[in-house]
Here is the input.
Amino acid sequence: MKYYSYKNLKPTGWLEKQLEAQYQGLSGYLYKMWPDIYDSKWIGGTKEGWERLPYYLDGFIPLVYILDKNREKKIIKSYIDTILKNQKSDGWICPTGEDERKDYDLWALFLVLKVLVVYYEYTEDSRIENAVYKALNNLYTLLNQKTLSNWASSRWFECLISIAWLYERKPEPWLIELAFKLKAQGLDYLTCSNLWKESKKVWSYETHVVNISMALKAEALFSKLTKSKQKGDAKKLLKVLDKYNSTAYGHFTGDECLGGNSPTRGSELCGIAEAMYSYELLFLITGDTFYLNRLDKLAFNGLPATISSSMWTHQYDQMVNQIACTKFSENPFGTNSNESNIFGLEPNFGCCTANFHQAWPKYARSVATFDDNNIYICSPVPFSIKTNDLELDVISEYPFRQKVIIKGKTLTPRTLKIRIPKNYKLISDLKEKNHFLSIDIDFDFSVEFQLVPLIKLEKRPSNLYCLNYGLLLFSLPINFKENMLEYTKDGIERKYPYCDYEILPTSSWNFSFIKKSDFDVVECDYDLPFDRKNPPLKIKTKLAQISWIESSPFIPSDSPSSTRIDEDEDVELQPYGSTTLRMTELPLIK
Here is the structure.
């Protein structure tokens, strides 16, 4: 199974608008104003020469090429040119002096090699293969002299991406040996999962949320490369995470390390972006739609909720029950700072500032795949495909509307396989089998169906409930006031539109679901899909205002009372991804 080239697959509809909004926001501006990008050691500057520029390029490259932004293509090329020019004759490619090599954390090497592979996928630059070959050969030599440590040990499997890419072109045995060396020297996350059953406010590599999000794909990558049997490690890891560290939007807590099941613990944006990428690769390798359902749940909920509608600012950590974004007087987070959920340029730490850019562009690329005889519609969002022998359009507003039309023409007979997402009822004359509609296509073709979201209250671990509508999670939005914070820190100016924002509530948040209440779905006019003011959907219902104390300032207790304190209220719930302040997990009372 393979992805289509960006030249062949184009996002349309709301997905294209979302990518354009990202480009018009911080993603398209960061290289102009953030010293860790424009003055990075990777390109001859004096600032950070480790993960930040590679992180940024990992998302910026696909964003720019998908949207065909020629100015930024030239900027990217200049960065890649410099990185390649500075590679040493022995293959060392990282921006250090000879005396610094022994202490340099090789995680950045794994990351920059992944970036070079991404760049090749979009440009077919003939220089990349030799550069990756030399760098991996240098790594092979290094690992005969020293072992992995720290971040490189925690993220060893990220190097498998470039190894597998090179092995397809040069199937030399030392590359497989290198993969085994990395695995032998790296963390075993199945063993680590024994440490995930209790939330501790202690930082460790083994419980680090981003490491874990990345590690979900480790076994699949290794097994594909080495042709060894998969034992389902990803699902085993997710089973532990879902039991002990879950969130209502289908991810796991981590602020910065795993945080248990509380709806007021944080989850880091980097972890969401990396989990999405893991799910994309897991489906590509295994063909299991289980991972696509998790991918969509994150893309439609957790990802947009933690980035502002304009995509100029983001949080480091988001909370499921989030009644303020402020510098908390009593820190609710595990090892992150008390300001980790404010919206800004780089709240808490700058890794998410560099890394969030990959999420939407990589998602846009993953919506369809193919093999010799089949086209797979992995997510029925709006997009088009055009190749020498195929034209295909997916006309939809999934997950915000029910109707889906897929039409086109093919010169080669093949089977069109359309994924039916979890928690949707299919209305069609065609029958679903193994989570797909399968249609043999030849010449002109057209298929129309409806995906009707199932609406249900889901019980959460704290004896609270959340409301799902298909793969969309809904929340009670809380009115708020924003305090714009413009200042300079570490020589970096925070100014509008990329300043920080403290956000405080101006409406009540202490509500409960009511048993046997109706939930009436209302379709609304919208432009951007995750706009806070004009969301594409609302759900009308009644909620009961209850006695619910704060366990500390602006942190709702996980154990609210069931005592009504006022008349029940008619309210309008919004998609979780279209909220800033919200209550999502609520009690359920008579």
